Amino acid sequence: MKKTYLNHFHKEHGGYMVDFSGWEMPLHYGSQLTEHLEVRSNVGIFDVSHMAVFDLTGPEQQEFLRFLLPNDVAKISGETKALYSPLLDEDGGILDDLIVYGLGQNNFRIISNCATREQNYDWLRQWGRQFAVDVNFRPEHSIISLQGPSAHKHITRLTNNKIAKFELTHDQDMMISGTGYTGENGYEIVSDAINGTKIWDQFISDGIKPIGLAARDTLRLEAGLNLFGADMTKSNSPYDSNIAWTVDLNDKNRDFIGKQALTNVDKTKVLTGFYTEERGVLRSGAVVRTKNCKGIVTSGTWSPTFKKNIGFCRIEKNHGDIGTSFLRDKEIDLNFCNNNFLKSLT
Amino acid sequence: MSIDEKNLKFLESHEWARIEDDGTVTVGISNHAQELLGDIVFVELPEVGGNIEMKASVAVVESVKAASDVYTPISGEVMEVNENLVSSPEIINSSPYNQGWFFKVKPQNINELNEMLDLEAYQKFSQE
After folding, report:
1. For A219, phi and psi rounded to 5 degrees?
2. Amino acid B2: pLDDT
3. Separation of alpha carbons B50 and B52, rounded Å
4. Which residues pair with A270 in a beta bridge?
5. CA nearest B64 in A: which residue?
6. pLDDT at res. B5
7. Domains of chain A and CATH, by start
8. d(CA A91, CA A257)
9. Are A25 and A213 in contact (CB under 8 A)?
10. Subunit contact B38:A218, Cβ cutoff 8 A
11. Size of interface A-B (CB pairs under 8 A)
């Protein structure tokens, strides 16, 4: 199994290590519930160095990205900012989701998921050939995610710059972006492994708790953020995955991969949030029924923040407000709501 | 390892059983099981007074990660269930062999427990 440079730390600090797409990663360090609540109420750090970093070089980076992605990097042109986008195939199917970072001076970086790194590397190089651009995979990078309402107090260790959501600052050694996967204010810090180790150790000695991948999953679900591979796959488009907003059609002259196909893809279904008050958890694969339609749960968990079962369900648009499902042979009621539970349940 | 574990017998499905002084049998899930499940958030317990059959699924334990059936290693009448688990299921994580017990059975045939693994055999099994 592949290991991040913090692997020894995780093992020495009680990390319950699991195989995560070929990487030995900490699921939790004792209790995923405690870790989740720590991030919601205070702050925590995640080792997400297993994610894939691609740095672009060459004069046509922006042209390439405007063709590669449905979201339009022209929006962050000339700025140091981050932009979320899915990666689509020619059929408009979702290959992955990623964040593209504008580093200024027409230089861009992409960070995408771990399980899809080879696919993405091949895809980026394949389409990159049509542009004056090189795709450089950076396997040696460290990515530390600092997340929580107190994160801004701790980031001052690394920079005096104020970094708002989706803004970023960077120098030769380090990039700090106002991004994350928790719904909290937070930062992602990309550096080499030597700097990464120093930053991690410094945060730990400041009393910040390490957070495992299990809490990362419940945090992102509460925040209404999709998990590629669970909530969206190649068989889905942005329209049935609650990310239609990433399809930027403002520049009518811009072509991008999948654009033509997106005009014809099925737009009758949506990915909606739901919750139940029942004792039990509807999980991925559970069938949901309403008066006139049928859907399927893509992610489901027990929400540590709201103390109830929450999840996402892919179902026809006109699903109404309530539905039913089965929890171990017992029929239960559920309520549909906005995917961002941090807003819809408070 | 606590001294208590040595008096326990185990199923390969990760339940434990202990014969009490009054002849009843207490059942719970193993430390290894709670580690595999992670933070436990719900339990469903059998009905007091009901009769249960060896190897039947009689309870459910659900963590943030997954739900799992709990099988009884012994047939008999359910004498008592641990109601504390309903409001505080995390006790199972912190004390699987003591405060985290699930239910007590008045056994029909105590010899049913002979089919279970002792601690050493169970540890060997669960490490594989």
Report:
1. -65, -45
2. 54
3. 6
4. A315
5. A302
6. 79
7. 7-46+140-222 (3.30.1360.120), 53-137 (3.30.70.1400), 268-344 (2.40.30.110)
8. 8
9. yes
10. no
11. 39
Q: What is the pLDDT of residues A22-74, one digit of tens each?
A: 999 999 999 999 999 999 999 999 999 999 999 999 999 999 999 999 999 99
Q: Please give the radius of gyration of chain A, using alpha carbons only, rounded to the nearest integer.
A: 20
Residue A77: count of CB within 10 angstroms of its CB: 12
| Cα gap B90→B88, rounded to integer Å | 5
What's the angle, vertex CA A283, arms to CA A50 and CA A342, rounded to 5?
Answer: 70
| Closest CA–CA distance from residue A279 to any residue of chain B (Å) | 7
How much is the pLDDT for B7? 87
Chain B CB contacts of A282 under 8 Å are: none
* Residue ranges for chain B with pLDDT beneath 70: 1-3
The structural domains of chain B, ordered by start, are: 13-121 (2.40.50.100)
Dig out the tokens for B65 from the structure.
């990660």
CA torsion sign for B89, B90, B91, B92 is positive
Which residue is it, tokens 């990660």? B65
Q: How far is B42 from chain A (nearest CA, A)?
A: 7
Radius of gyration of chain B (CA): 13
Q: Which tokens in the block code for residue A31?
A: 């209790």
DSSP states of chain B as a string?
Answer: --GGGGG-EE-TTSEEEEE-TTS-EEEEE-HHHHHHH-SEEEEE-PPTT-EE-TT-EEEEEEESS-EEEEE-SS-EEEEEE-THHHH-TTHHHH-TTTTT--EEEEES-GGGGGGSB-HHHHHHHHH-
- Inspect the interface and report whether the beta carbons of A328 and B67 lie closer than 8 Å: yes
Chain B residue nearest residue A34, CA to CA: B39
Interface with B, mutate which of A279, A326, A330 (most B CBs under 10 A): A279
ipTM of this predicted structure:
0.87
- Which chain A residues are Cβ-neighbours of B87 within 8 angstroms? none
Give the minimum alpha-carbon distance from A301 to chain B in angstroms, rounded to a whole number. 6
What global pTM score does this model have? 0.94
Q: How far apart are CA A198 and CA A88, in angstroms?
A: 37
Residue B62 to residue A280, Cβ atoms within 8 A? yes
With contact defined as beta carbons under 8 Å apart, do A146 and A155 qualify? yes
Nearest to B41 among A28, A302, A328 (CB): A302
Mean pLDDT of chain A: 97
pLDDT digits (tens, 9 = 90+) for A285-322: 999 999 999 999 999 999 999 999 999 999 999 999 99
Phi-psi map region of B115: left, alpha, beta (phi>0 left; psi -120 to 50 alpha): alpha
SS3 content of chain A, % helix, strand, coil (to 5): 25, 35, 40
